[in-house]
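Entry 12.
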Amino acid sequence: MSNDSTERHLSACAYVRRTDLAVVRLDGGDALDFLQRISTNDVRDVNDARMATTLFCTDKGRILDIIRVVHHGDALHLIVSRVRKEQIIAYLRTYIIMDDVRVRDCSDEWECVEFTGPGAAEACSALLAADVSPFPAHAVYRGADELRSTYVISVESRWENSFLVTYPVAEGASRERMEEYLSAVPELRDDEAEILRMERGIPATDKELTVEHNPLEANLLHFINFRKGCYLGQEVIARLDSYNKVKVRLVGIRCSANVREKSVVVIDGVDPGVVTSVGVSPRYGPIALAYVRTEYATQGRTVMVRDEHSGDLAECTIQELPFS
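Predicted 3D structure (tokens):
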């Protein structure tokens, strides 16, 4: 990169390749109405410049996945968890009856990279030749010239200042430009990205996001619109919200020693929770995410975490999320 300003911004951000994400394409005149009917959030305003984040749930209100919906050309791109991709495609096809909707896995055609850090917005602006620095929520920015198929969205993710860049693999100029650009940016290791995710309290697929839990337990209330009408799992989720019947909550735990996933949270001889993610933070030391029964999930409460293999106990403290 020849521009000094761009060089400074690149040095103030980092990136991670989001190989954990996949892209599912929805075509057809009923695609948006179909999504509106089956997912938890209001997606009717999705257009070339605006995206939406919603949830797919089972009919029992349990979490299937977080879905980012982006308008692309004459279709919709659903950015989903790669490990849930086949399940999501089957889920969509199950509920397409008379709708003009076609589902296609196009994950091999797209790659996703996430930028973070104080210079992330400026770096994305330089990449797209468009000012994304005042990035409003849900906005979509698209590239020009050889990057015209590339788009950038602001996401709830591992970091507070975070931008997801999605670009086509088949367009050689686009891929070459991205790879050249990434060569000037530090790359985060997977374990570093995982710690940042945990510090922000963002639930991960197959750890916190499972069919054992509902969106209210996972702190995903902001992805639910209670006024939009019916969606799959609505009755159960609405009842839990109306009657304050959420049994467990996702919380952070600061630990006196390293703990392992699936360890049990113990309070006064009771086992009210289980650890779902663990790591060692440079700022907070050993930390974890855990589902803990609501009556015990209070800031500052001292708990013990018991390793189910060794029986060892570590003294820990409940932390409201995010840690920071």
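Annotation: Residues 1-9 have pLDDT under 50 and may be disordered. The CA atoms of residues 52 and 69 lie 5 Å apart.
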